[in-house]
Amino acid sequence: MEQSLWWATSGIGDGIAEGYAQDAVTEHWRMLFCQNPTTQGVAMNYLNGLAVTNPQWADLQVGSGGGVCYGFGYRNTNAMTFTPFTPTLGTTGWRLVLRTDWVLQTVRIVLLQNSDGASGIPALTQNAGYRWEISLAHGTVTIGNAIQGFTDDRVSLSSSAIITPTEIQDRTRRDFVAPGFGWNVTDGTGHHLTSPSGLSMADSKIYEAYGFFAVRNDFVGSLVLTPIFNPGATGNINVQVQAWYSTCGENVALHTDTVGYAALPVTQSLRNCISALTLPSAGLSDFVDVVVRRDAVDAADTINTFVWYKGFYVDYVADS
User: What pLDDT score does 1 carry?
Assistant: First the structure.
């Protein structure tokens, strides 16, 4: 059946004498903006696009923005912070959603969290007429109060308009670089990666681990390297992180950045992401050499056993 909207409610043609029902309005919005209402709904280019970030510890911040959830409009001009409870039994799954609630007659951002120690991501409720949720982001929180596995789930409002690359909102991306080679400075011996657990950095030694990567061509800025350690005991590990970088035709160490030695607390059986290093001068196609050092000779290193070095994350802002 053909139908046109929104004529004066006089009963002439497609005009409806008694006015338009709520369902007619929301169905029209779904038609225009949410052809797939199970995922679509965020106005990516409005304010801060409801972007979710993890500024510190387990805090999750949702930026200002707006969208449509199952045909109901939503707008928020302020950033909001949500903090999952810190689990005691084990890593626990969480999800941030935009929820339409027919009983409360509201659209709100809500934090869902699994039961303590259950790492599965909470499921969405999508029951029209009662409650409908679309996901903004998901991940897990550890007993060490750290966010892991962060994933941006936002899906833009649909549109027939052509979007150019410059109109696509920048977003954070993450790569991982495994250790390529280790060097026992104290004994003058080298080691390749021989275990799925990582590269073993011995106790009572000065040890170096090497890695390298090229900056991707979607790089915009804010490049940060974060080493990952799995220690054989709980205590302080004395580490330094250094990177030097440049592009083709430039001096190898044109740019050099360092996080100096510091005794940082780490916990046995956890993946400890510590001693992050920012590369403020990084640019497109730069080649980056990275060395992570453990000085277990220094009394500040209290682990007193080996430490598995996993490699490092490469986080940066991409143009799409």
Answer: 61
Domain count, the chain: 3
Domain boundary among 166, 183, 203: 166
Query: Are 25 and 48 within one domain?
Result: no
Q: Do strands 307-318 and 272-273 pair parallel, antiparallel, or not at all (unpaired)? A: unpaired
Q: Which domain holds residue 7?
A: 1-33
Sign of CA dihedral 73, 79, 80, 84: positive
CATH number of the domain within which 178 lies: 2.60.120.200
Q: Which residues pair with 302 in a beta bridge?
A: none
Residue 97 pLDDT greater than 80, yes or no: yes
- Does residue 162 surpass a pLDDT of 70? no
How far apart, in whole angstroms, are the C-alpha atoms of residue 87 and residue 115? 9
- Cβ(49)–Cβ(65) under 8 Å? yes
Model pLDDT, residue 12: 82
Q: How far is CA 183 from CA 202, 207, 300, in A?
A: 10, 6, 21
The identity of residue 127, as a single letter, is N
Q: 220 in helix, strand or coil? A: strand
pLDDT at 279 over 60: yes
User: 14 and 63: one domain?
Assistant: no
**Domain co-membership, 245 together with 283:** yes
Tens of pLDDT, residue by residue over 26-40, are 998 898 888 899 999
- Average pLDDT, stretch 50-73? 94
Alpha-carbon distance 149 to 138, whole Å?
8
**Residues facing 151 on adjacent strands:** 138
